[in-house]
Amino acid sequence: MRRKIEFALYFIAILFFIIRYADEGGEDRRSRAPANQPPAVLLPDDASLPRDEGDVLVELDPTVHSGVGTAFSVDNEGTYVTARHVIDGCSDVFFVHSQGGLEKVASYAAQRNRDFAIIKAIRSTDFHLKLSSREMRRGNDGFMMGFPQGNPADVRATVIGHTEMRSSGRYRMREPVIAWVERERLPGFGGSLGGISGGPVFDGAGNVVGTVVAGAPRRGRVYTTHPRVFGETGLLKASEQGRTPTLSNGITAENYHSIGKTLRTSGAIRQVYCRVS
User: Fold this and answer.
1) Which of 7, 183, 231, 266 is the most exposed place for a label (fewest CB within 10 A)?
2) What is the Cα Rg of the chain in Å?
3) What CATH number does domain 54-277 carry, 3.60.15.10, 2.40.10.120, 1.10.287.3510, 3.40.50.620?
4) pTM of the model
């Protein structure tokens, strides 16, 4: 009888500790969330984008160096879009041919209040990309195409929110941007996405909804211009005219890399070389 009582007491004591510490993650309490952390909130599909944590800080080198980026065609008149930091301070700007040759552009000009620039090519492409001012929703996939690290490649990412990008150094600027988390790179590679700056980000219907402007590889983040930039710069209407790619099945995780190859081959997406004398 005495042994039964002892077992009962042991059982009650063990049960007490299980209940008492079940929510504390055992002995490793480093994984516990801070007591003042707000609870997660599920957002409906049509809700406006939540703010990503913290502003994006970009420190620009005061000295301009030669480098590469990406640009894409937006009308039938040889107009291309890229990022301001790709062509800012350049002595000359060229398109790079797949064989390595250079083609000097007719002109280029940067916006002063955003990381956005316009290039005029000497000749136009057979077709151009269609722009959209539609804001993507949290959880939507997007497809970024260009020349990261100077090589042709594509990135699939998912919208997580919006934030503000603050640039300092060679010039100072603040602008709203869309934050994405990387899902896949094709072909696979590690490290920086440098070189894809200025490249387009597509929605599933094949419309361009932003331009790549920054990345944070350690966090798996990519940042793109807000889609309203296309309307504010007067490019939206022009992109609706003329010949645009026909994507009957849209862009998906299964076909985005092959579409990227096609758009680069056609010249709708091109590599840009900035030469500094």
Assistant:
1) 7
2) 24
3) 2.40.10.120
4) 0.80
pLDDT digits (tens, 9 = 90+) for 110-155: 998 899 999 999 988 889 999 999 989 999 999 999 999 999 999 9
What is the distance between the alpha carbons of residues 37 and 48, in angstroms, rounded to a whole number?
Answer: 22
**CA dist., res. 124 & res. 117, Å (int):** 17
Q: Which residues, 6 or more positions from 81, have their beta carbon under 8 angstroms from its beta carbon? A: 71, 72, 74, 116, 117, 118, 119, 198, 200, 211, 235
Rounding to the nearest 10 degrees, give the CA dihedral for residues 199, 152, 182, 205.
60
d(CA 43, CA 51): 12
* DSSP strands (E only) in 91-172: 92-96, 102-104, 107-110, 117-120, 141-146, 153-168
Q: Please give the full DSSP string across 4-38, using - where no structure is assigned.
A: HHHHHHHHHHHHHHHHHHGGGTTT-GGGSPPTTPP
DSSP H helices, 56-212, are: 84-87
Whether the CB-CB separation of 165 and 210 falls below 8 Å is answered with no
One-letter amino acid of 117: A
Query: Please, how many CA atoms are within 13 Å of residue 223, restricted to the half-sphere of its CB?
Result: 27
